[in-house]
Amino acid sequence: MLIVAYRQEAPIYLKDVADVSFGIATNRGETFYKHHPSIGIDIVRQGDANTISVINSVNKKIQASIIPNLPAGMTIQTVFSQHTFIMSIIHQLEQDVWLAILMAAIIIFLFLRSFRPTFIVLGVVPISILGAVAVIYITGFTINAISLLGLTVLVSIVVDDSIIALENIFRTLNTRKNISNPQAAGIGAEQVSQPVFACSLALISIFLPIVFMGGFMGLLFKPFALVVAAGILISLFLALTFNPILCSRFLKTGLKESKFDLRLQQMFNGLRAGYMPLLKLAIGQRWLSVIIVVAMVSAVYPAYKYVDK
What we know:
Helix content is 71%, strand content 4%. The chain is mostly helical. The protein is elongated and about 115 Å long.
């Protein structure tokens, strides 16, 4: 008996002032699934928990402990799960990573026109990606949509340093006849070490500040920036060490050019013929070039100001 008040030292029970019965508070809210009455249960993870791990643990618990003990005629079904949405994004980004590697291989082959240099340059990609994944593991992050997006961007960046080093080594082999492959690899890598180093540091300086960004945006994009910065640093090391070693062993010159190579060379010569007059004009009219660049840079702020946000 629940006492709700006293009057003249006499207790007043809840049954004296209300009709009490067991049941739902209101029948205005009902849950149906496939036209059958049901009970909906939402499972919400904590802020610092991994969504995929939570979903896998819940599903394992349901299959092992709950379903075998259900009454006859009762079933449990998952109506909505973020697992499907997240995994579809991850699989799509994984495909994008492989597609980026394939496209990078095709572009490199078109410009280098040889399988050996193409495979030498592409050798940097899996090692850089593996190093970036190791950094993700060490720092406590996970493979998610943001980090996979960083890996996709990384594929197109890590080959730059290797292409520069390989092209200079190849040129050294062609211009210096009385020189061995190991010597040409050392000389060619040394000649471009400073510009390659400066280019990589410039790229790292763009992405690294995001790692120290605060707030929600910093928390969201920190894995992306960390993946790209770590991958660039690893690719820099590989371009000046691993690539020259491969070039000294596998790079060859004096290969016979095919008709396809000759057609590509003609196309590149046409592009060069159209570019050289523009370059000479820019060099001959330096002040005009400076004025155009300043005008373009000055137009950035008004454009940013009036673009919808």
